[in-house]
Structures are given as structure tokens and as C-alpha cells.
Write a structure and sequence with these properties.
The complex is a heterodimer. Chain A is an all-alpha fold. Helix content of chain A is 68%, strand content 3%. In chain A, helix 6 packs parallel to helix 12, helix 9 crosses helix 11 and helix 10 packs across helix 11. By secondary structure, chain B is mainly alpha-helical. Chain B has a single domain, classed as MetI-like fold (Orthogonal Bundle). Chain B is built from twelve helices and no strands. In chain B, helix 3 crosses helix 6. In chain B, 45% of the residues are buried. The N terminus of chain B is likely disordered. The chains are: A mainly alpha, B mainly alpha. At the A-B interface, helix 1, helix 4, helix 5, helix 6 and helix 9 of A face helix 2, helix 3, helix 4, helix 5 and helix 6 of B.
Chain lengths: 375, 295
């Protein structure tokens, strides 16, 4: 008995030893390197400093302050605004298209596997391939723009990824107020939702939070946030539509696959029961299927969201790093670090990216592993 | 909500229009469904059409007004020229993908076996910490990575890139194998243990022989990911050892290269993963869905 127990213990130690190299690699290459990058972001490390032979000096959080308020870092603020707009539209397009295609394929169609293959094949391609091909299609003097001429219409004039148009313009100096008002709207909607669900305690708490926020805004608190010296206009760069089209072409098959897997998991009896209750085909979807797909929507939003926050290859191929209308933090970090040799500033951009992704991913990871049944 | 609709009213007769009207409505909705599906398929295939049409043209046929038209004369000349430029990189990617996929799937299989069947204290914390590594923007580790690879002499070459892909492939390969092995009944292992098998014997004689589907999913996933990867390739390899994606971007980024050659290059760079997808699509989708953690 004792011999078997010690045998088991020896096996347990062996198991841990097998896992250990991977744990060390992850500890060093992920966490160690993130720490190193974070440290670099608090120094003045750049090519000049390295040539001078002096050790890098600490500058605290100055690099971060510069990114958000420095006169020379307009490009980073463009990136942040682009990322927000791109992420929202990209997720919306992929969800709507993916759900639509999945529902269509769920109607017991002939040749389903052929359709599925067609909608999903772009996922197998590199973003670089996608970028090269769509760049040709987006060419303003040819490509998609000449298609209408085949139907006797004038050629399109939209300049796609080099379009200079900008909608929803705002001054970066007002960013504090804008964010506060957006936040307030969200909080009020959440509060109303809780009231409607009769969860009075939570609703009262969130309403209180909304009141606090409102007072803060009325007392002009958010106005003190921006320290930008001059007005600086930002907005939704219409050129981003081109990136959304290319990225949506590549990724909406993925949401379709997720939704299709979810739809196949809903038993036919459940739908039949709804039909017997008098629900039409639309009613079955509205009241039975869609509510059951909600967790998939959340998963898809998170997966797509972290992809769009990190997007690099596609924009690199379309814009080549010079096109600020579609610029993203990932591109900026790469060029700042490896072309301009501004290591500390590049590191700061990388850490901002990491924080954005972590805000999306960490709660998701924690939640999905907590709800998983323990082995 | 679903509770109310599932109430037992099965005896109630079907309400609604008569059979013939229902039949007409059904036909109309069928036509609509197929119409939408075919329309969307055409839209999704537009880039493929463009790649094929353009890459089979010779340069004198590539002009803006006729870009949507079929080539008047089919020629492989643009493929020859693209291959001329991309062949060395195609080879680099092949070597890279072979070693990185092989090593990371073996590592993933061992890790998955340990995490699924040899739970030890702290595993519940270590595993999510490990998984986080596959979601990070790699920009956040790029600066130290370059310095580290320089210091150990692996910067610029293929071995360095292989190492990087193996390391950052650990989370996803471990996750897929862990979920795969979690389905293996514990009784099978317990039976083996009673027969006196230890850690390695259990892996060798019970786990490994049933691992083939897991390996197929992981190998296909890693193959696709590594073949398509760009950021590491463009950052840590020199001109000699650049993978195909970097070479394709360089080809397309230089303004002097003709569109037919670019499209032929895109075709070549996309072909291997596309073939894998077409012939082994089922496993590809499984890897895809595993990427959303719970699968």
C-alpha cells in the first residue's frame, strides 16, 4: 500500500516536471517580457540614448502622458480613435453577417457544406494575402469602383482606404467630457435595465452611480482631464470602411461557424414545442433560438474584439505604415520601435495595447474557467 | 422565456393558413433562402475570381478598364515570375512550419496530458495564466524578444523564429489537448495504474494511441497559424530567412511589381493553407472553435 502511494507521488512529481519547461518558458517569454516592456516604457530608451552609451533613465509615466497629451503624438491619438471605431463596426458586421448566414444555413438547405466552405475559406488565409488582394480591389481608379460601369452606371468615386473624409468630428481637448457623457449614458441604460428586471437593490446602486457621474459632469470635473495645448480634431475616418470590408470578409465566416455550432445544439423538440404553441418560424427564432445564442454572441464579441484591437498585418499590407487614415496602435508601435528606434515610446504603446486587450480577455478567461466543471 | 413556450399544448391542432397557401409561402421562402445564399457566395468569391483572372493574364493584358474581364490568352508567366521571387521564402515557411508545428504539438500533448489527468495544487491558477499568453498583443513582448534573441545569437534566422512559434504556441496546443484528454474516462487510466503503469507508460500505452484526432486538430491549427503569421516574421528574421507572408508583403509593397505577379504571389502564399482547409476542413473548424477557450 505504502509502495503504491509513493509510486503515485513519484508520478505526480514527474507530471509536474514535464509541465515545468513550458511553465518556465511562459513565465519568461510572456510575463518576464511584459515586465521588461513595462519597465522600458518608463525610461527614455531610444537610439540616441543607446548610442551615447549612457544607461536609460527613468522618466516615470511621462511616455504615457506624452502619448495622450503630447503635441508630437497626434498619430497615437488617431490610432486610438481608429481602433474604437473599427472595433465597434467590425464586431457589428461580423455578428450580423455571421448570424444571418448561420440562420440561412440552418434551414436544411441542399449543398450546405459547399456554402459553408465558401463562407469560411477566407479564415484559412493570411491577413497579408487578404490585404494584397483587397488592395487591388480597392484601387480607386479600378477594382470595385469600375463595376457599376458594366451596368451602364457611372464609375464609383469612393476612394476606399485612401479616402480622406472624416465623420463625427470632435476636439480631443473635449475627450474627458465626451467619455464622461458616454459613460453616463451606459450607466443610465444599465440602471433602467435593472429597474425593468425589478432587481431593485442593484438598480438603486447603479442609479446612485449615475447621479454621482452627473454631478461630476455638471461640476465640470471632466474638463480638467485633457491637457492638450491646442485643439486637435479627430473622428471616424471613412477609409476604415475598407478595412472593415476586408476584415469582415475574412472573419465573418468564423462567427457563422460559432453560431452554426450553437444552432445545431438547440434540440428540434424545443423548436417544435414553440411551433405547437403557435409561434411562426420568425417567432421560434425570436423567442427560442436567439436567447439561447446569447452566450455565443458574447464569446464571439470577445474573440473578435481582441483580434481587432491587435490588428496589424491587414493594415500593414493595405496602408504600408504611412496611411494614417487607417492607422492602428499595432502599426504605430512597430514603426516607432523598429524604424524610428524610439524604444521607450514603442513600449508605452505596446503596454496600452496590452491593457486594452486585457480588459476584454481577463474577465472572459476568469469567467469561462470558473464555470467549467472541475475535473 | 423558453419555459413558457415548452408548455404541454401538443394536442392543439396547427393553426394558420391552409395547406396550399402554406406550400406557396414555403416555396417563396425557399427561393429567398437560396437566393440570399447564392448571392452571398458570389460576394465572398469575388476576391478569388479577381486573383484567378488577374494572375492568368500577361502584363500587357492587365489594364484598369479590363481588370474584371477574362484573360484573352491564358498564360502562366506571372506564376513563373512570382515563383522566381517567392520560392526561397516558400521553402523557409515550409521548414519553419514543419519544425514549429511538430515541436509545439508534442509539447502541447504532454502538457495537456498533465493538466487533464494529473491535477496538482495551483493548476487552476497556472492554466489560465498560461492561456493568457495566447491573447496578448505580441507587440508587448517584441522589444525584449528581439534583445533576447540577439543575445543568444538566434536573431535573424529561422531557428529563432521556430523557437518563438513553439513558445507562443504552447497555450493553444496545451488547451486543445487538455480539452481532448479531459474526455478520456479516468477509469481507463486507473485500470492502467492498477496494472502497475506509471506516468510514462500510461501516456505511451493509453493516451498516445488515442491521440490522433487531437494531433490532427492541433497540427492543422498550428500549420495554418504559423504559415499565415506576419508580425514575428517581419520583426525577427533577416532577408535570407523571411517567411512567405513577409516576402509577399515586400512584393506587394514595392510599387514597381505588376498586379498580375502580385495576384499570382497571393495565390501561391494562400494555396497550402487553402488546400488544408478544403481537404481537412472539419478539423480546421474544430481548432477554430477551440480558440474561443471553451470550444
Amino acid at each position: 500500500m505504502l509502495a503504491r502511494l509513493s509510486r503515485l507521488n513519484r508520478d505526480r512529481v514527474m507530471a509536474f516536471l514535464v509541465l515545468l519547461p513550458s511553465l518556465i518558458l511562459i513565465a519568461v517569454f510572456v510575463y518576464g517580457f511584459i515586465g521588461w516592456t513595462a519597465y522600458t516604457s518608463t525610461t527614455n530608451s531610444n537610439a540616441m540614448q543607446q548610442l551615447s552609451g549612457q544607461p536609460a533613465q527613468s522618466v516615470g509615466l511621462q511616455n504615457y502622458a506624452d502619448l495622450f497629451t503630447g503635441a508630437l503624438n497626434t498619430r497615437f491619438r488617431i490610432d486610438v480613435v481608429n481602433t474604437v471605431f473599427f472595433t465597434v463596426i467590425f464586431i457589428a458586421v461580423c455578428l450580423i453577417l455571421g448570424l444571418g448566414l448561420a440562420i440561412l444555413l440552418d434551414q436544411r438547405v441542399r449543398g450546405e457544406s459547399i456554402f459553408r466552405t465558401i463562407f469560411l475559406f477566407p479564415m484559412a488565409l493570411s491577413f497579408v494575402v487578404t490585404g494584397v488582394v483587397w488592395k487591388w480591389l480597392f484601387n480607386p481608379s479600378s477594382g470595385i469602383n469600375v463595376l457599376p460601369t458594366y451596368f451602364g452606371q457611372p464609375a464609383g468615386t469612393f476612394r476606399w482606404f485612401i479616402s480622406e473624409e472624416r465623420w463625427l468630428e470632435f476636439n480631443w481637448q473635449n475627450i474627458g467630457q465626451i467619455l464622461a457623457v458616454v459613460l453616463l449614458d451606459v450607466v443610465i441604460i444599465v440602471a433602467l435595465w435593472y429597474w425593468s428586471k425589478k432587481r431593485t437593490q442593484a438598480a438603486a446602486l447603479i442609479t446612485g452611480l449615475a447621479l454621482l457621474l452627473m454631478n461630476w459632469i455638471l461640476l465640470e470635473g471632466p474638463k480638467q482631464i485633457s491637457a492638450l495645448a491646442r485643439p486637435e480634431t479627430h473622428g471616424f475616418n471613412v477609409a476604415l470602411i475598407a478595412v472593415v470590408v476586408a476584415a469582415g470578409w475574412q472573419m465573418s465566416g468564423y462567427t457563422m461557424a460559432m453560431y452554426l455550432a450553437g444552432l445545431r445544439g438547440i434540440s428540434e423538440e424545443l423548436r417544435e414545442a414553440a411551433r405547437v404553441d403557435g409561434a411562426g418560424e420568425w417567432g421560434v427564432y425570436r423567442h427560442v433560438v436567439l436567447p439561447l445564442l446569447q452566450p455565443i454572441t458574447l464569446s464571439a464579441m470577445i474573440v473578435l474584439g481582441h483580434i481587432s484591437l491587435k490588428i496589424f498585418d491587414l493594415v500593414y499590407t493595405l496602408g504600408g505604415g504611412d496611411n494614417l487614415y487607417i492607422d492602428m496602435p499595432g502599426i504605430n508601435m512597430f514603426f516607432t520601435t523598429f524604424r524610428s528606434n524610439e524604444f521607450a515610446r514603442g513600449a508605452a504603446i505596446a503596454i496600452v495595447m496590452l491593457i486594452m486587450v486585457a480588459v476584454v480577455i481577463v474577465p472572459y478567461l476568469v469567467n469561462s474557467l470558473r464555470t467549467e466543471t472541475q475535473l | 422565456m423558453t419555459g413558457t413556450t415548452a408548455s404541454p399544448t401538443r394536442a392543439m391542432p396547427r393553426r394558420g393558413p391552409t395547406i396550399t397557401l402554406w406550400g406557396v409561402r414555403r416555396t417563396v421562402s425557399r427561393v429567398l433562402i437560396y437566393g440570399l445564399l447564392i448571392g452571398m457566395s458570389i460576394l465572398f468569391l469575388v476576391p478569388v475570381y479577381m486573383v484567378l483572372v488577374t494572375s492568368f493574364k500577361s502584363i500587357d493584358q492587365v489594364s484598369l478598364p479590363t481588370m474584371w474581364q477574362f484573360p484573352t490568352r491564358f498564360t502562366l508567366e506571372s506564376f513563373a515570375r512570382a515563383l522566381d521571387r517567392l520560392a526561397p521564402n516558400f521553402l523557409n515557411s515550409t521548414v519553419l512550419v514543419f519544425w514549429a508545428t511538430l515541436l509545439s504539438s508534442m509539447l502541447g500533448s504532454m502538457n495537456g496530458y498533465v493538466l487533464a489527468k494529473w491535477r496538482f495544487p495551483g493548476a487552476n491558477i497556472l492554466f489560465p495564466l498560461m492561456l493568457f499568453g495566447m491573447f496578448i498583443p505580441y507587440q508587448a513582448i517584441l522589444i525584449p524578444l528581439v534583445q533576447f534573441l540577439r543575445s543568444i545569437g538566434l536573431y535573424g534566422g529561422l531557428p529563432g523564429l521556430i523557437l518563438v512559434h513553439v513558445v507562443y504556441g504552447i497555450p493553444i496546443t496545451t488547451l486543445i489537448f487538455r480539452n481532448y484528454y479531459a474526455e478520456v474516462p479516468n477509469e481507463m487510466l486507473e485500470a492502467g495504474q492498477i496494472d502497475g503503469a506509471g506516468f510514462w507508460k500510461l501516456y505511451r500505452y493509453i493516451i498516445f494511441p488515442i491521440s490522433l484526432p487531437g494531433f490532427v486538430v492541433v497540427i492543422i491549427w498550428q500549420f495554418t497559424q504559423i504559415w499565415n503569421e506576419f508580425l514575428f516574421g517581419v520583426t525577427i528574421t533577416g532577408p535570407e530567412s523571411q517567411p512567405i507572408t513577409v516576402a509577399l508583403q515586400n512584393l506587394a509593397g514595392s510599387q514597381i511589381v505588376e498586379w498580375n505577379v502580385q495576384m499570382a504571389g497571393a495565390f501561391l502564399a494562400g494555396l497550402p493553407t487553402l488546400l488544408v482547409y478544403i481537404f481537412l476542413g472539419r478539423y480546421f473548424i474544430r481548432g477554430l472553435l477551440a480558440g474561443s477557450v471553451k470550444g
